[in-house]
Structure formats: structure tokens, C-alpha cells
């Protein structure tokens, strides 16, 4: 049953673009997603459609997954008792390569890799940075965990969807790199939002303040490339109603992953924990949850306004 088909599960904001970039490179795809609309769009782009993850495993020895979080990945691979029958693992052919680009718990990657290994197959964790724009333009960076032979085999497909593919170490190391980066990003974004809000309340012009920070020691990616104050930088989500970016709920999830990792390896993350609590408040508020994580600036601004 093996063929040169590649299986792709998870056709969301990131996965749909990534799947299309494989098609553009001449790869034949079989896709699966719970969202029928997403599946129909990929079908019209030429992909075959599976009814279950199991169909993908039967048809293909090369599989990419791009799912929201650890429970979704466990469900699709079929490592939880409810999903075993229709999951990827139960039907996996020996010699299959699985590339999971979801951002999930490092321990979940290691667990799924273990289940895949029992089927004489290989798994790499390959989370990404670069966002939706990077997914669309095939400029993602993949942080890959797995043995070198699997990394080399994965690179030929990952390079069709991104411009950098970095081998971080064994399974789980890709997630480790991604989790650390996003924890620092969350902390940095809150710090930038606090500073900008404080300065603006003291009467400083937002663009002037940003230009001073960006030539001083307060400079960071959140101040010079993704400033959360609308109008400071054009054409980024904070200047477009906080739409089309990296949602606060996803940032909250990633900070939760950092929290889990810190407990597991006993490394204190004082500011990471605080950032997690801040984004939990945003993620639990329907006004903010699906808006770009730069919305923390508006949240802080609104708090101050309430007190006046
Ligand atoms: P998304 O929510 O837009 O898409 C997830 C897709 O998975 C959806 O289409 C959903 O229907 C599908 N899905 C969920 N459960 C499923 C199941 N059991 N079977 C099949 N399909 C299922 O998420 P996204 O923005 O594409 O992000 C995917 C991953 O990439 C997340 O882990 C996220 O943290 C990470 N990431 C996102 C960004 C970003 O900017 N959006 C950037 C870097 C990394």
C-alpha cells in the first residue's frame, strides 16, 4: 500500500499554507482535518482526502502533523485509549517518518516518538517559528528533535515549507528550543507593553518613545519589529486591530508548556510564570483570547483608564 503520497493532518492557519507549499513543490498529498471546510479547500488544490488519521497511515510512509496542542497530537497518533483504533500509530507501516510541527509538551513528543518506534518507524518533533506569514511564504524555521538520519530524511520535506531547518538534538529538543523562545517572547511583549503604556500616560509620543527605546538598552523584538501600540509600526497585527497574528490563547498555551517544562527539569522561571498568569487572564476573556498577543498593551491601557 505504500506510495509516494505524503500525509498531512491539521490544516489550520499554519498547516493549510504548509500543505499547499508541499503541493507547489510537486508532492502528492493525502490530508485530514476535523474541519470539513479546511479539507474542502485543500481538496480543490489537488489533495486526496482521508476519513481518519488511520487512512493517512495506510496510504503514506511520510506524515506531517500540525495540530494545536498535546491532547490533539496524542489523539491523532492514537496514543490515548479512546482514539487508538483510528489513530496513525495503529495502522503505521514500518519505515514511516512522522514530522510533528505542532508546539506541544516536550514529554508528549517523547511519548509519541516511543509509540512510533514500536512500529519500527521514526518521529521528529519539528515546531516552527515565523508565524502565518512564514508558513505562507515558506520561510519558516524548523527546530528539529530526532536522530540524525531522521533529521536528514525530514529535511527534504521541511525545506519545501521553510528556509531554515535546525537540528537541535534528540526527540524533544525541538520543542525545548521553541518553548524557551516563546517564553522569552511573552515576557518581552509584556515588558514592552508596560513600558509603552507608562511612557504614553506620562505624555510621551508613542513613535518617539519607541524610537528612543530602539536605539537604547530597552530594545527587543517586541519593541522594534512588533511594537504592540497601534500605529507605531504599520502593517503588523497591532496596527490592524490585532488580527491575523499570534493569538493570546496560543501564547498562553506556550507559556503553560514552559511552566510544565520548568517543573519537570526543576529550573525556576519566575517571570515566565508571571507571564503565563497574565496571558491566562487574556486567554479566558473572549474579548482578547483570539486577538494577537500584542493586545496586552490594550489590556493594560484599559486597566489604567478604569482607575481615572
Ligand atoms: P489552528 O488552530 O489554526 O489549526 C489547528 C488545526 O488542527 C485546525 O484546522 C483543527 O481543525 C485541526 N485539528 C484539531 N484537532 C484535530 C484532530 N483531532 N484531527 C484532525 N485535525 C484536528 O492552529 P495553528 O495556528 O495552525 O497552529 C498549529 C500549531 O502551530 C500550534 O501548536 C501553534 O502553537 C503552532 N504555531 C502557530 C503559529 C501561529 O502564528 N499561528 C506560529 C508558530 C507555531
UniProtKB/TrEMBL annotation:
<comment type="pathway">
    <text>Amino-acid degradation; L-valine degradation.</text>
</comment>
<dbReference type="InterPro" id="IPR015815">
    <property type="entry name" value="HIBADH-related"/>
</dbReference>
<dbReference type="InterPro" id="IPR006115">
    <property type="entry name" value="6PGDH_NADP-bd"/>
</dbReference>
<dbReference type="Pfam" id="PF03446">
    <property type="entry name" value="NAD_binding_2"/>
</dbReference>
<dbReference type="GO" id="GO:0050661">
    <property type="term" value="F:NADP binding"/>
</dbReference>
<dbReference type="GO" id="GO:0005739">
    <property type="term" value="C:mitochondrion"/>
</dbReference>
<dbReference type="InterPro" id="IPR013328">
    <property type="entry name" value="6PGD_dom2"/>
</dbReference>
<dbReference type="GO" id="GO:0008442">
    <property type="term" value="F:3-hydroxyisobutyrate dehydrogenase activity"/>
</dbReference>
<dbReference type="GO" id="GO:0006574">
    <property type="term" value="P:L-valine catabolic process"/>
</dbReference>
<feature type="domain" description="3-hydroxyisobutyrate dehydrogenase-like NAD-binding">
    <location>
        <begin position="172"/>
        <end position="286"/>
    </location>
</feature>
<feature type="domain" description="6-phosphogluconate dehydrogenase NADP-binding">
    <location>
        <begin position="6"/>
        <end position="169"/>
    </location>
</feature>
<protein>
    <recommendedName>
        <fullName>3-hydroxyisobutyrate dehydrogenase</fullName>
        <ecNumber>1.1.1.31</ecNumber>
    </recommendedName>
</protein>
<keyword id="KW-0520">NAD</keyword>
<dbReference type="Pfam" id="PF14833">
    <property type="entry name" value="NAD_binding_11"/>
</dbReference>
<comment type="similarity">
    <text>Belongs to the HIBADH-related family. 3-hydroxyisobutyrate dehydrogenase subfamily.</text>
</comment>
<dbReference type="InterPro" id="IPR029154">
    <property type="entry name" value="HIBADH-like_NADP-bd"/>
</dbReference>
<dbReference type="InterPro" id="IPR002204">
    <property type="entry name" value="3-OH-isobutyrate_DH-rel_CS"/>
</dbReference>
<dbReference type="InterPro" id="IPR036291">
    <property type="entry name" value="NAD(P)-bd_dom_sf"/>
</dbReference>
<dbReference type="InterPro" id="IPR011548">
    <property type="entry name" value="HIBADH"/>
</dbReference>
<feature type="active site">
    <location>
        <position position="178"/>
    </location>
</feature>
<keyword id="KW-0101">Branched-chain amino acid catabolism</keyword>
<keyword id="KW-0560">Oxidoreductase</keyword>
<dbReference type="InterPro" id="IPR008927">
    <property type="entry name" value="6-PGluconate_DH-like_C_sf"/>
</dbReference>
<dbReference type="GO" id="GO:0051287">
    <property type="term" value="F:NAD binding"/>
</dbReference>
Amino acid at each position: 500500500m505504500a506510495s509516494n503520497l505524503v500525509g498531512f493532518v491539521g490544516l489550520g492557519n499554519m498547516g493549510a499554507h504548509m500543505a499547499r507549499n508541499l503541493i507547489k513543490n510537486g508532492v502528492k498529498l493525502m490530508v485530514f482535518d476535523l474541519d470539513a471546510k479546511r479539507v474542502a479547500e485543500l481538496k480543490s488544490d489537488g489533495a486526496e482526502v482521508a476519513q481518519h488519521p488511520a487512512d493517512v497511515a495506510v496510504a503514506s510512509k511520510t506524515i506531517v502533523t500540525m495540530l494545536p496542542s498535546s491532547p490533539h497530537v496524542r489523539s491523532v497518533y492514537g496514543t490515548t485509549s479512546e482514539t487508538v483504533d483510528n489513530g496513525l500509530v495503529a495502522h503505521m507501516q514500518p519505515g514511516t517518518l512522522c514530522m510533528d510541527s505542532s508546539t506541544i509538551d516536550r514529554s508528549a513528543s517523547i511519548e509519541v516518538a516511543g509509540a512510533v518506534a514500536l512500529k519500527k518507524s521514526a518521529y521528529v518533533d519539528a515546531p516552527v517559528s515565523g508565524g502565518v506569514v512564514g508558513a505562507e511564504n515558506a520561510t519558516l524555521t524548523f527546530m528539529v528533535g530526532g536522530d540524525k538520519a531522521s533529521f536528514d530524511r525530514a529535511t527534504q520535506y521541511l525545506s519545501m515549507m521553510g528556509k531554515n531547518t535546525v537540528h537541535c538534538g534528540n526527540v524533544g529538543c525541538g520543542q525545548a528550543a521553541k518553548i524557551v523562545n516563546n517564553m522569552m517572547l511573552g515576557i518581552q511583549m509584556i515588558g514592552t507593553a508596560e513600558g509603552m503604556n507608562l511612557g504614553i500616560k506620562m505624555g510621551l509620543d508613542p513613535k518617539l518613545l519607541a524610537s528612543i527605546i530602539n536605539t537604547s538598552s530597552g530594545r527587543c523584538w517586541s519593541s522594534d519589529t512588533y511594537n504592540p501600540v497601534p500605529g507605531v509600526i504599520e502593517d503588523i497585527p497591532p496596527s490592524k486591530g490585532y488580527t491575523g497574528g499570534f493569538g493570546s490563547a496560543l501564547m498562553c498555551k506556550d507559556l503553560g508548556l514552559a511552566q510544565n517544562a520548568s517543573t519537570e527539569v526543576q529550573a525556576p522561571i519566575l517571570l515566565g510564570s508571571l507571564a503565563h498568569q497574565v496571558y491566562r487572564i487574556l486567554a479566558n476573556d473572549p474579548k482578547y483570547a483570539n486577538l494577537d498577543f500584542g493586545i496586552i498593551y490594550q489590556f493594560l491601557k484599559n486597566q489604567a483608564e478604569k482607575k481615572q
